[in-house]
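DM from R.C. (forwarded with permission)

"hey, sorry to bug you on a friday — could you get me a structure for this? deadline for the figure draft is monday and I only need the backbone to look sensible"
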Amino acid sequence: MDEQKNQEEYKRFEAASKKFSQIFNELNTNNIDSIDKYIDPFWKGTIQKVEDFLLPIPPFNFLDFPEIMNTMVPQEFGDRFVYQYNYLKNKLTEPQLKTSIEENVVGDPTSGVVDFEITTSSNAVHQAYHIHNWLDKTKTNVNKVNTIFEWGGGYGNMAKLVKRIFDNKNLTYILADIPIFCALQWLYLSSVFGEENINVITPTKQAVKPGKINIISVGSLKLLQGFKPDLFLSTWALSESQPEALEVFDVLSGGIEHYLVAMHLGTDLFNKETVQKLVSYLENEGCRKEKMEFFPQDEQYYFLK
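My reply, with the result:
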């Protein structure tokens, strides 16, 4: 990691962390609809623990917190990591590989140095693989993807990687999640890119700002009525929500051109109705179903378009 860049992230984090409670309150108290109808019971206990841990001021090493680490941050450097890393290494030039997987210091992720002296993490490689696999399989021209909507953004890592890999200053990105994770995304992405490049949308601040990463609570989705993204993205989060979460497709304008959706089809942990309806919707949209080769024992699939 570059030491000067690290110091800049430390400074931005220190400033942004002091505003964390304010951002959370804006997102948590100004919702058009109840967010509870979207949340699967599996997540409710985790959410409360994360709120208790992060509020009022999150620690710099928030990725070490078990409820965050175990649900958002793959830690293993075994067969899956090797499979995905080798795919990226064989496909990309050295500069492209560095752009795709180089880790940031904020959050204090578990990382290691790989080829070309790149400091990366299991999570960075995992999510970069999703992006490049989608680009490869769909032959999508990134220059024609100017708007992206992501349902459930974790702590913001996917949005960070997409912004880097696409390298489009005009790219408008929207992250929709529950308030505590929205606030965490705001904190992480503000620390990486600067607060001026992150916009929080609430009923009192309704504008989507072009060229920025926009963050909105799922309880305020109706503010996006008619918004049509070029790419709809969700890696596991939508399939781990209640069936009401599929209302997002009623809010977003029809005819979305591209999809990158990942889900687990063989688990009893989450609502099977959500999974069945989501699969039906994506198949009707013409998405390609692809089994994840790096999870040979599990029913993990991509839906790509």
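R.C.: lifesaver. The chain has one domain: 3-75+127-304.
me: no worries. The longest helix spans residues 122-138.
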